[in-house]
Amino acid sequence: MKTTTVTKPQSLQEQMDRLGPWTTRFHVDGQVCGGGYEVSQDDALLRSFRERLPLPGRVLELGCMEGGRTFPLARRCGQVLAIDVRREHLERARFMQRQLGLSNVTFFEADLETCDLQTLGQFDAVYNVGLLYHVGDPFRVLQQCAAIAPEMLLWTYVVDDGDAELNGYEGRFTRENPADQIGGVRSRSFRPTRCELMRMLTDTGWRNVELVREENTAVALWCRKDAGDEPTRMPTGTMSLAVIITCHNYGRYLDECIRSVLHQSRRPDEIVIVDDASDDDTAEIAERWQPAGVRYLRVDHHNVRLSRQAGLEATRSQVVCFLDADDFLSPDYLRSQAFVGVRCLPLRQMTTRNEHRPLSEVIENYDELRPHTLPEPNSVPAGYV
């Protein structure tokens, strides 16, 4: 008599265990399985992405790992192409895709430090979360992203101070352990400083950079190639900021001045050049910066106070920084000084060709300047302009 052996079906967890140790935790048909890292359906970064791009058609996700962010993203997108360099990550991601029954995700194996993303076609946006600080050449990754999509959500780590340089950008080299399943695949990566990351984004084609959130050295940025006409949105509780550059025949200094503003570690929401009756090349230089979101205003006052007032009336931001075209800002100036509790910045605090000094050193009775002592938003106390 022949005996038939009945094989007991494997449980979901047993099937997952066969694919190796998992990093990400999933919920499947009421079961909790996988690793210890879980991405909430109300994750702040996913929510920010959906708010800014409610129904994208095609999204590229970089460094997808096991699909922890991929699947919530796919529920609000037409198609998601998710890339990772580790084959074992992709095997687990495809297994979980089958369990969840999502057909609008394609997982693709590629090394982002060597591949050409343009071969994948064009996308509505790039979801670049948790990857950039693990690569050796972040400039190359950002440049490739700008070539295939008009918008990008970037979440990465930066460093406060640099002790090294890569391709002209200051930062720090960080050790990576290729055996670590959530780290980089090479022995070291490069993390730029805050202001150098902003400069890197500008140089790679991302003209409009919005701060989504910031916590210690972790920053989330919404990046657009089109500068647009509207002031960018800032996190709740953060006041919007405008830099007004007044200029009279200082075209020879204007490039450096604008560059110092655009490369701030806290980029302003509005930049306005007020050209007061210049007869040099100020207008032509200002026009070159328009794709970066810099606005140009021509007046004929021959008076710096009236020029600043004209710039003030042309902005809508809550905080205003006045800057003369022959001056420039140190890289962290706006980040460290702009939000000190005052609702507007009454500035005339520079000597020619010098960097800004702290507000407390240059404004008389600085400690008295607090919101309850100031006039309405977007105004400057008399006597300070």
Which radius of gyration do the C-alpha atoms yield?
25 Å
Major sheet: size, sense and barrel closure?
A: 7 strands, mixed
| CATH superfamily placement of the largest domain | Vaccinia Virus protein VP39
Q: Specify the helix fraction band.
A: 10-25%
What pattern of helices and strands is seen along the backbone?
A: HEEHEHEHEEHEEEEHEEEHEHEHEHH
Number of helices: 11
The chain-level structural class is: alpha/beta
Structure description:
The chain is α/β, with parallel strands linked by helices and 385 residues long. It has two domains: 12-224, Rossmann fold; 241-373, Spore Coat Polysaccharide Biosynthesis Protein SpsA, Chain A. It is 24% helix and 24% strand. It contains eleven helices and 16 strands. Strand 4 (79-84), helix 4 (87-100) and strand 5 form a beta-alpha-beta unit. The longest helix has 14 residues, at 87-100. It starts with 11 loop residues before the first helix and ends in a 23-residue tail after the last helix. Residues 338-385 have low confidence and may be disordered.
